[in-house]
């Protein structure tokens, strides 16, 4: 199945490359696809498999179990039940959790509800092959093969990827999912940090990392979703989580990386003092674009008790509901000044839920005092919570499990976002306008807003306040009071045109929010791949410096990701070829 040009253009300013597949000899700037004369032979792939110790895997769609003579109806039935969840995709070498980029080229629901036509199950936008990476040498072999044979190369761990950067038609994927090292460094010493740390393999997921660190009496900054990887897009794109108000973003907690460059060079140490420009790019400048991360060394912090709270109010149709929502946004300015305080909240047209309030080292009294002014606002607005619970947990992993660990994470969503500056919320007129916009947004019945209240200033993050070249975290994070996601929920079997329309809706709302938030920005891990102003949104003032790093370490774009730095210098054709513009 061919991907339509409307999906494959990387930005509105990028012209579509229209060279025909049979004209490949006239366009050497395009990466080869299966069927092209330059595509590696079966013998070439066999040689690569030998080189990497039998770790080469041919790409297959997850739903392939539903098709053909080897169809497994029991497995297919289970897959249909789980199709909207992330779980079936996490251990797959080429599949991703984003339905938009899977493109419905192989659905367990089939065409018109039937799966008897094998031609309806194609790889589509997924990688043709993957290498199960077990070492820097294996990664280097994959890089060399892709570079020498003019193939698209992507890096994939779990496939939590809303923007499609870890997949691509005809690609060779470096699958880092099984790099599971977690090693405690009791006393890491460097110019910028002395204290406990961990070396973490590129495939480690938070659900395992949190348990491992808790056994050592420590905690690390990580994400809210337990199945996300600790060192891929999350960390390299910035990386937020419940501990961000205590210690900054994931990128702020990076001490060093072990990588293989696009030239196949193994760099055991990439740090603020060794290969500092590459460290800068890997720490917030986007994943899969500068080098392949094998492991990272990250800060660890002494564990301790947490106060936590949750609260829910329902929309009873009176003005008080939206008065209470606006009061919450205003009260974030107060919570912003309490060390370590972080919040996660979900807003819809029917209810507002403070999913989790986090106060490290606090008790029930401290949590109550922090939220008391907002409670008073709720009463004044006539809002009575239907849920209102506060408790103390003895460690971070207990706190996490209480509020987030049991959540079911779905993949059938289209997501966008915006960083909301503190200055906006301080201005009552602008705050009222933002609240009215939120109200318009959630009036669409399938749209919800997820709001994350973090303080990630440089002072909190522990990075040099007088340097802009320490890491590439987009500057908008430092000035933001909250990060908000706009989420459109779909069904498990949504057709691709519906997904395309949902993406267009998200982009329209992002444009509205952009107009209201000068000085704001986006978050590259939770946005849209085709945002019209993606350079400003995702990179801000870091883009030019990052482009120089890209030119130094990967001048020929062996690694390519959208919307990564330099992405507009390439475009995808309607048949899936990746071509230099």
Automatic annotation (TrEMBL):
Which residues lie in coiled coils?
Answer: none
Keywords attached to this entry:
FAD, Flavoprotein, Oxidoreductase, Signal
Q: Which residues form the signal peptide?
A: 1-19
Q: Which cofactor does it need?
A: FAD
| Molecular-function annotations in GO | FAD binding; oxidoreductase activity
Q: Which InterPro entries match?
A: BBE, FAD-bd_PCMH, FAD-bd_PCMH-like_sf, FAD-bd_PCMH_sub2, FAD-linked_Oxidoreductase, Oxid_FAD_bind_N
Claim: Zinc-finger is one of the keywords in the record:
no
Q: Which residues form the FAD-binding PCMH-type domain?
A: 123-303
What the record says about family reads: Belongs to the oxygen-dependent FAD-linked oxidoreductase family.
Descriptive protein name = FAD binding domain-containing protein
This protein's species is Colletotrichum sojae
Q: What high-level taxonomic lineage is stated for the organism?
A: Eukaryota, Fungi, Dikarya, Ascomycota, Pezizomycotina
